[in-house]
Each structure stands twice: as structure tokens, then as C-alpha cells.
Write a structure and sequence with these properties.
single chain; about 300 residues; alpha/beta; Arc Repressor Mutant, subunit A; D-Maltodextrin-Binding Protein, domain 2; 3 domains; five-stranded mixed sheet; globular
Length: about 300
């Protein structure tokens, strides 16, 4: 098994075809096909199925893919470390942030961090546990700030709790259900869910605790900007963190629909891989995010 073969597998998975993978890698199609075939022979498994619709990973391919991505990420980090030691590269940090809290947590931190660490390249990826934690596990991101309910597993990660808080229901200004005070009254509304159905998110748990089914009319969206825009232009409802309502742009469009029974508590946590120590640049940004999270949530 060679690094180049793993790169080929990752490129095929991302592009969906041998031709596109070859173009991405700057190789010929026969070279990519041969590399994949040698890898399959070496492992004695079939990694992809070919069809008229393109290429799909087999069960073995899906199992190997996150490890292949992790190996690539570790090799890249090793190269970057050596480049920095030689004085030829800048520090870089890739952080994942839960979309429910990212809009109010990240901007002030990036502003201060940019002034204090002008040589560090920072990339922020917005998402949910379902998208961010697999990326953390395979090394695509350095650390993540995610939300979790008390009974959710953190296996494979070290989690430092930053703050505990509750989400609240919001809708557009003048929403026809703005006087409702229970989930039962809101069950017929169209909802914008952050976490997918069946993953035990706050909305799902809250409805079940009331003996109610999750609303039939519900879309899943992990983009803060799209969620806010949809809420402002429709009668949809969603759960947000209260500090979001302090953003002028959001406060002008949305209003809280306070429930008589509070929603389940969430923990905002800093997730790192248990087997990897944060580099100094990553640690500096993580400490800044931790301080901002504790400051804002302590005031709300």
C-alpha cells in the first residue's frame, strides 16, 4: 500500500469517476486505473464498483476511505511541520464550528486572532457533529467546537466542556404562531432542522419528551446563512442559540417564541483527537474560541 494509491482512492471517491480523478491528480487514466487495481490486489478486496452512473465505493472502499484521508492529512501535517522548522512556511489551522453557534462565536475571535497572529492562516468549516467529527477523526480539521446532549458518545475524542446552554425557538417577525408556548402548538409548522432526522438532536428529543412525533414538514440545513434567510422569508421555525438574537442583522428579522417548558441542555465542547496533540498555532486559536464561548454564554 503506497501513499499515491491512497491518493487515487480519495480522488475517485471525491470525483466519482476515473477520468475526473485523473484530471484532479494530473495523471493519465490508465495510470489511475493501474494504481487502483494494484491497491485492490495488495489488499485482496474490491474497493469500487463501476456502473453507467459512475464509480461507487464498496463496503471495503468505504471502510478504507477515512483511513486513507487520515494518512494523507498526517503526511501533509508532517510536511508543514518540517517546512515551518526550516522557516519556509506559515502556520495554518483548520477548525470546524457548529453552525448553531458559529455566527456569533467566530467573528470576534477571528478579528482578534488576526491582529495577534497575523502570520497564521485560518480556515473555518461550518457544520454539525455528523459532518465535523468524521473530518476531525480523519485529520481534515485540527479541532472542532461542537454541541452535544449529555448522552452522546465522545469515543475517540478528548472533549473539554466550554459552556452549557439551551436553544430557543425562533420565527420571522410577526409570525402567526408567535403566541404559542408549547411544542404541541407548533407541531404543524414547517421546521428547519440543523441535525438530521434520527440523530437524536434537540428538536427530536424535545418532541419525543412531550410524546409528540417529529414534525412531518421539516427540512435539514446546517448553513447558518441559509437558515436565517429561509426563516425571514417564510413561516418556518427553527432552534437557535439565544446569543444569535443579539446580532443586529438577525434581530431585525427574527423573534423568539418562548416555550413554557425549556428545551434540553446542550454542552458546547472543544473536540480534539485523543491521539493527537494540538500544535501551538491550533492551541492559540482554540484558547481564543474557548474564552469567547465562555464569555458570551455566561452573559446569556
Amino acid at each position: 500500500m503506497q501513499l499515491g494509491q491512497l491518493k487515487v482512492l480519495c480522488a475517485i471517491a471525491e470525483t466519482g469517476s476515473i477520468r475526473a480523478a485523473a484530471r484532479t491528480l494530473g495523471l493519465s487514466q490508465p495510470s489511475v486505473t493501474k494504481s487502483l487495481r494494484v491497491l485492490e490486489q495488495d489488499l485482496d478486496v474490491v474497493l469500487v464498483h463501476r456502473s453507467s452512473q459512475g464509480i461507487v465505493l464498496t463496503e471495503a472502499g468505504r471502510a478504507l476511505l477515512p483511513r486513507a484521508r487520515g494518512i494523507q492529512a498526517e503526511v501533509q501535517k508532517a510536511r508543514e511541520d518540517m517546512e515551518r522548522l526550516a522557516g519556509r512556511a506559515r502556520d495554518s489551522v483548520t477548525v470546524g464550528v457548529a453552525s448553531v453557534i458559529g455566527a456569533w462565536l467566530v467573528p470576534p475571535v477571528l478579528t482578534r486572532h488576526g491582529r495577534e497572529h497575523p502570520g497564521t492562516i485560518v480556515r473555518v468549516i461550518e457544520g454539525t457533529q455528523e459532518t465535523l467529527l468524521p473530518m476531525l477523526r480523519d485529520g481534515s480539521i485540527d479541532f472542532a467546537v461542537c454541541l452535544r446532549l449529555d448522552d452522546e458518545s465522545t469515543s475517540g475524542f478528548t472533549v473539554r466542556a466550554l459552556a452549557r446552554f439551551r436553544l430557543t425557538v425562533v420565527g420571522r417577525k410577526g409570525h402567526p404562531l408567535r403566541s404559542a408556548r408549547s411544542l404541541q402548538e407548533l407541531g404543524s409548522a414547517h421546521w428547519i432542522m440543523t441535525r438530521p432526522r434520527g440523530k437524536g438532536g434537540v428538536l427530536e428529543q424535545a418532541f419525543r419528551a412531550e410524546g409528540l412525533s417529529i414534525p412531518r414538514s421539516a427540512a435539514e440545513c446546517d448553513s447558518h446563512a441559509i437558515k436565517i434567510s429561509t426563516l425571514a422569508q417564510s413561516d418556518a421555525l427553527a432552534l437557535v442559540a439565544k446569543p444569535m438574537l443579539n446580532e443586529p442583522a438577525v434581530a431585525a428579522l427574527l423573534e423568539e417564541i418562548p416555550l413554557s417548558k425549556p428545551l434540553p441542555l446542550l454542552t458546547a465542547g472543544l473536540y480534539t483527537r485523543s491521539d493527537v496533540r494540538l500544535a501551538p498555532a491550533c492551541r492559540a486559536l482554540s484558547l481564543a474560541l474557548e474564552a469567547e464561548c465562555k464569555k458570551i454564554l455566561r452573559l446569556n
